[in-house]
Design brief:
heterodimer, A: 108 residues, Arc Repressor Mutant, subunit A, 4 helices, 55% helix, globular, B: 893 residues, six-stranded mixed beta barrel, 29 helices, elongated
Chain lengths: 108, 893
Amino acid sequence: MTQRASLLQGTLDLLILKALSTGELHGLGVSRRIEQMTGGTFAVQPGSLFPALHRLEESGWLTAEWEASENNRRAKYYKLTKTGRRQLGEATEQWNRVAVAMAKALEA
Amino acid sequence: MAAIIARVASVIRNLTRRSRIDHDLDEELRATVEVLAAEKVRAGHTPDAAHRAALVELGGIETIKEGVRDVRAGAMLDTLAQDVRYGVRLLRRYPLFAMTAALSLAVGIGANTAVFTIGNSLVRFSPVAVSDPDRLVDIGRSFDGLPIGFNPASYPDYLDIRRRTTTLEHVYAHPLFPKDMTVESEAGTEKVVGDVVTTNYFAALGTRALIGRLFLPEESDAQGANPLVVLSHRYWVRSFNADPGIVGQTVRLNRYPVTVVGVAPEGFQGTTVVAVDLWVPMSMVTFVTGSTPGGLEDRRAGWVVMGARLKPGASIEQATADVAGIDRALRSEYPNQSHPQPFRLLPASPMADKMPLAAAALLLLGAIASTVLVIACANVAGLLLARASGRGREMALRLAVGANRSRLIRQLLTETLLLFAIGAVAGIAIARAMTTGLMSLLPVLAVPVHLSLSLDWRVVALACSLAFVAALLSGLAPALHASRADVSTVLKDEGHGASARLRMRSAFVVAQVSLSLVLVFVGGLFTRALQQASSTNAGFDARGVEVASIDASLGRDGDAAGPRVTRELLDRVRHIPGVASASMSRMLPLANEAMGMGLSLPGEVPRPGAPEQTPGSGNIVAPGYFATLRIPISAGRDFTDQDAAGAPLVAIVGEAAARRFWPGEDPIGKQLIVNGGSRPGASIRVVGVAHDVRYRALDFGTVPYVYLPLGQHDTSNLSLIVRSADGRSVAGGVRAAIAGIRAAPQAVSLQSLDDLVAVALTPQRVGAFVAGGLGLVGVLLAAIGIYGVTAYTVSRRTREIAIRTALGAQRGTVVGLVLRQAISLTAIGCAIGLVLGAVAGQVLSMLLVGVSPLDPATLGGAVVLCVVVVLAGSFVPVSRVMKIAASDALRSE
């Protein structure tokens, strides 16, 4: 079992946006993608994932559509909207600033 | 901006398309499970095992759903709407519960709202067409040591204050009570109520005429100077069809011609709640009221109250000090003519002279109304708990499938709030009826009272906040309790949670029983006080006695006519067939009036700092007064016609006065110095001792009482007192007798003394009616509570009872088992109620003259009533016990 870090506040939203930046995914797909992107460090529980997806959808950063899944079943696919993509850019920038600052601070 | 619009749109979408979104979420989660399961099948699981594993991996579906719903915009609104819908559905399913609860709340909220409406309209009374009413003050003599209320001052007092004040302007005066008058005009003859005001009255209030003009400050108050009248808008519309042509015309007021100079603005009634029909200037006072001109010069004759406006920059404290200084100066200038009470100055208020009564009545009503609301809350809390016990399973199930606890509590509270919202709406409706009812409880007052009892936003806000607080109080405990449902025990059976619930319900029933008992007891006490204070117990007998208030100067024959005409009138009245006896007096018993008199013994040296004279009270009466009112004379004699102007001065004293001045001695023949009547400071010989009579319903201690003969003292405003021989009215004969006298006086009203006495007992009657009536409602609610608790016990113990019966237990034993609970709850409730009742009785003892606050008969009666009614509530469920058969044991679970 890999050591799993707890998510920082606001990190989940950024991870979801990043996960969807390469194309549309259904809910489970988002969670798998995040796990894969972070090398298994973050495993998003469905109890947090689905509310977060719906919250981002309410905020207008995601849209959702019913489509056929890989094995021909219907599934709800989420994808980034234009504002979602902009939000991802801004959030990434801010995250990087914070990360650099934190790294500096911790090395000093 | 766009973001806000999008947000609002989303809220609306969520609310309206609620079911579609829910459906969507279900689909999404199902699809996710399928995707997961498909992966596991590929990994080699059987489809069934894969599906199970997928469900496990996903975790609690309900929890996810809750989470998603919560993040949805408008989540709060959403759940609220759902709760309300759910609540309405539940209430409709249990209509009896809903009706009982809402009705009891409506009564509680309604009662509070009604009291508040009256209090609000008094406190927030804003005089119409009066400019800057905050700068107006009322001035009079202080009221027997009470912090509020006025005794009247004399006309010379008024003139002196007006002349000497440095802090007040426009000092005006008018009689303490408005006067009945007769107006003859082209519209016919009509009895009206009029005020007599100094000519600066309207200028002081800053009032302008609607049409014509009002009195001018420069017009003289000298007697006979200005035969003018100003009409009220109401009277002008009522009797003169709002005809502007009335201005300038002459009408006859008490047969005296006066010119109508104008009409006051609509709604104008000075600063008081008394709405008069017209105003005449003080220069008309002897013509329209029959006061003697001497009354205007007599420093001891109190009959006016004053008002004034604070000078710019003057504060009410400065004005109070100013008036107190004038009082001291007058006392040293006129040492023998000083009134026992000092001047008092208060901010102008709508009920200056009746404030103590009004305040007492409102406080009492408020206390009663709050008690009723508490009873109603206890009742609803009990009902909610009963409901909660029925829903324990539902709650446990919902918790088990992942509903969260705060959501359940919120839902239960929403239901309660819904109930209370219904209660509040119904309560406001009831409050209207109750307010009207309360006002109609006030007997026909001698003066027309006009109070606008509007249902303003404050009243509605109060009703709503009462409902909200009550809902929280009575809903929270049951809601917490129900949602604390322990999943495992509740699903198994009713467990110990149920018995805790029963304990709480029992506590509510006990509270209801005890508070209802208090109300019934208080209502009973007031009823007893009414009986006690009724004439027979107040020291006189009003039955069969009629009273005409008459003009004592008796018109235009000059002053000397007074005593001669009163004798002639009495003579005629005594000869009317059906009249047993007749007399006249200045004051009437239980009329809540007092004529202050300073009393002292000749040669008595007052202690330093003590008042020179003992404050007493007195009356001026004609011969036959004691016989007509059946007041026993315990020693000496009644006045006779020989006690006239030239004869030695005589007095009759009450027993309290006799005890005060000559303890252990025979007062007959003793001398007393009386500052009062027409012979101030004269030494007067006591010729008789009469039983004490209650002249005021709210007696604040027995004051020494002195009667002076009418033959030796001038007075105005006499009452003709007539006792009929057979109890039938002799009003017609009395009117004829008065009309038959050459210098005919004005008989302005003719009433039975019982009716007059009724006015004095208003607080007691209101208390008896309201406390008694609401107490009965409370007892009925308590009966419903007992019914609920007992029925619940029976249903829970059906199995036990059936088994006991099957094993041969006597019916009586089984019934006793159930009944014991009802009896013990009632007993505890009554015990607590008795203690609270005793406290309430003590608090109210001031209003309960002549009744012990622990009156055993009342206490016993209240207890019996409560016990019978409340136990009757347990009859139905107990009788159900009788029908339980052994076979029910099998069916009961």
